[in-house]
Design goal:
By secondary structure, the chain is of the alpha+beta class. The chain has a single domain, classed as Aminopeptidase (3-Layer(aba) Sandwich). It is about 25% helix and about 30% strand. It is built from 3 helices and 8 strands; from the N terminus they run ββαβββαβαββ. It has an 8-stranded mixed beta sheet with strand order 1-2-3-4-5-6-8-7, sandwiched between helices. A hairpin with a 5-residue loop joins strand 1 (about 1-5) and strand 2. The chain is globular, with a radius of gyration of 15 Å.
Length: about 170
């Protein structure tokens, strides 16, 4: 799927297996950024099966054939935590430094949300950190609000952790 991001940038968003070289590269890039920002990578367990149909998906965004963005969702297993509606966790939202502020994060997030909704999910939740103010501003501008991370959030209760959620209603 080709989406228009800001500034006329075309981004091709492609579903990839979690073990695809471009997915691995994007995950490594976001982990490197976490190490700079927070002094360590994200320790949340990530298994390829979490992002396999029909319980999840991993996407890579390409500009001019180069991987520059990623985003994914995984279904929160019923019974692990009591949500009133089918819910997915958004993971690995990332845009390379040279492509930021061009609308790619928004385009990827819309794609991830739309795919989760197409798989029967009614709500999405995510964790981010206070050292990522641009990400927080994007999520809040798109209707994400503070939510409880009890039972699913790896970092619930940690200082600086921001836990957000949004109902998947049509835009």
């Amino acid at each position: 799927m080709v989406a228009k991001a800001g500034e006329g940038t075309d981004v091709e968003i492609v579903r990839r297996e979690f073990g695809h070289p471009d997915a691995i590269a994007m995950c490594a890039a976001v982990q490197a950024e976490y190490r700079v920002l927070y002094g360590g990578g994200d320790a949340a367990p990530m298994d390829a099966a979490d992002f396999a149909e029909p319980d999840g998906a991993f996407f890579v965004g390409y500009v001019a054939g180069r991987p520059v963005a990623s985003g994914s969702w995984r279904r929160i297993v019923p019974g692990r935590v009591a949500f009133s509606v089918p819910t997915a966790e958004i993971k690995r939202m990332y845009v390379t430094d040279d492509q930021r502020r061009r609308g790619l994060g928004r385009a990827m997030l819309f794609h991830v949300e739309d795919d989760a909704a197409a798989h029967g999910l009614a709500r999405v939740v995510l964790e981010t950190g206070s050292k990522q103010p641009a990400a927080i501003a994007l999520y809040r501008a798109l209707g994400y609000t503070d939510t409880d991370g009890t039972g699913w959030a790896q970092y619930a209760g940690y200082p600086g952790v921001v836990i957000l959620g949004r109902d998947l209603t049509p835009r």
